[in-house]
Design brief:
By secondary structure, the protein is of the alpha/beta class. It is 42% helix and 10% strand. The chain has helices at residues 7-23, 46-60, 72-83, 86-98, 106-112, 127-134, 181-193, 200-207, 223-231, 255-261, and strands at residues 26-30, 118-121, 140-143, 163-166, 212-216, 242-244.
């Protein structure tokens, strides 16, 4: 019998992932760790770069309370508290991401070639959407607004017309963006209450016990992801799911406890 760390078991797991994607039973979830400027040799996620820009502005304005300049929701919370203006924060975020609107990475190009029908994005960039178009597909796009209900999309996605669902909001509707710590808490509460509710198609895909998930750069060391996956019924599925994290995750002091939870 092969041990979990044996080459045979590892190969089977990768083959199993490929087969699940081929059968159309795997949902792709892209976290902030994959939205990276392809021209940046340091491979810094855009969310971190934006947080640092906001932090630099706060420091210049005399705010010395900053603890974690790489944490976007934390820095955005301080920015909003200082400015007292949500619209200004939305404008800064939109201006930042606009400069990357026509870019995409080789990673997104590779992902776009795979037969996913549902791709969940958690960052307000257009990398995957443009990569799907470049791959000859006709992607659909929709998003969740944690502040108010939106018309439900009725078109079921296919391999040639995959759905890119922006879970944390879209720049096309700036109020929908989950930017601050308060936004994130309100988002979680509203998803739990179903007010406004996620589209039935999205919920049904998560709740389907035959569905598996491929998480890439999701940041599972963050507590809110545990709550979110529990709310979306993403636990207890019959098929194996996969999470690909960068090396920093495995040096996190709570790494082993986090792995046990998931």
């Amino acid at each position: 019998m092969s041990t979990p760390s044996s080459p045979i078991t590892t190969e089977l797991r990768w083959r199993g992932l490929v087969e699940r994607i081929r059968r159309g039973t795997c949902i792709l979830l892209l976290g902030p760790g994959v939205a990276i400027d392809p021209d940046d040799p340091g491979q810094t996620p855009l969310s971190v770069s934006l947080a640092r820009c906001l932090a630099a502005g706060a420091t210049a304005a005399g705010d010395t309370a900053l603890i974690d300049c790489d944490n976007l929701t934390y820095v955005a919370q301080l920015f909003h508290r200082r400015k007292k203006d949500r619209i200004e924060l939305e404008m800064v975020v939109d201006d930042f991401y606009q400069s990357f609107d026509q870019l995409m990475s080789n990673f997104h190009r590779d992902i776009a070639e795979l037969p996913f029908t549902l791709c969940i994005s958690t960052t307000p960039d257009n990398f995957l959407y443009h990569a799907l178009i470049e791959a000859g597909k006709e992607p659909l796009r929709d998003h969740y607004n944690f502040k108010r209900a939106r018309p439900l999309a009725l078109v079921e996605p296919t391999v040639e017309k995959p759905l890119v669902y922006d879970l944390y909001g879209s720049r096309t509707e700036p109020e929908s963006l989950v930017l601050t710590e308060n936004d994130r808490l309100e988002f979680l509460v509203n998803v739990i209450k179903g007010s406004p509710e996620l589209p039935p198609f999205i919920r049904s895909q998560f709740a389907n016990s035959d569905t598996s998930f491929l998480f890439v750069g999701f940041g599972f060391h963050q507590w809110h992801n545990r709550i979110l996956l529990h709310v979306l019924n993403a636990h207890g599925h019959r098929n194996r799911s996969f999470a690909l994290e960068d090396q920093a995750f495995f040096t996190h002091p709570d790494c082993h406890q986090i792995v046990v939870f998931y």
